[in-house]
């Protein structure tokens, strides 16, 4: 069953990037990332289950390809990972602010930077 944790989503994005860059075999991905083979295999299975990646015949070899659905899902996965990361950074900085206030009560740590849409 697919895991929707932030680490799983990040792993899925990383593996999909590797496949799109031509590293289309589990061994190549494992070696390039320096991950354990089981982690790559599990991520690929999740990607296949979600139909983001498929295995295809290339000559005499079976290789991985990112599907059209996978390409369409990349922005959503990336947003989810970015949001999870922002929440983590905010919580760390919130804790840090408590320590700063003890030493320098008039200093504020602000990490919430608003970005304008470029539409």
Short characterization:
The chain has 119 residues and is mostly helical. The chain contains four helices and two strands, in the order αααββα. It has one domain (1-105): Orthogonal Bundle (Arc Repressor Mutant, subunit A).
Blueprint (SSEs and pairs):
Elements: H1 6-20, H2 26-33, H3 37-49, E1 53-58, E2 61-66, H4 68-103
Antiparallel strand pairs: 1-2
Helix pairs in contact: 1-3, 1-4, 2-3
Key descriptive features of the protein:
2 strands; 119 residues; Arc Repressor Mutant, subunit A; 61% helix; 10% strand
Structure annotation, total helices: 4
Mean pLDDT: 84
CATH superfamily: Winged helix-like DNA-binding domain superfamily/Winged helix DNA-binding domain
The CATH architecture can be named as Orthogonal Bundle
CATH class: Mainly Alpha
Strand percentage, roughly?
5-15%
* Biggest sheet layout: 2 strands, antiparallel
């Amino acid at each position: 069953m697919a895991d929707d944790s932030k680490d799983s989503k990040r792993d899925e994005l990383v593996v999909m990037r590797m496949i799109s860059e031509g590293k289309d075999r589990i061994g190549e991905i494992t070696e390039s990332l320096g991950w354990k083979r089981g982690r790559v295999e599990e991520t690929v299975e999740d990607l296949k289950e979600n139909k983001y990646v498929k295995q295809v015949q290339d000559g005499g070899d079976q290789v991985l390809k990112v599907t059209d659905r996978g390409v369409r899902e990349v922005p959503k996965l990336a947003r989810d990972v970015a949001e999870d990361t922002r929440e983590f950074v905010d919580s760390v900085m919130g804790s840090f602010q408590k320590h700063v206030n003890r030493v320098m009560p008039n200093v504020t740590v602000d990490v919430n930077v608003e970005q304008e849409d470029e539409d």
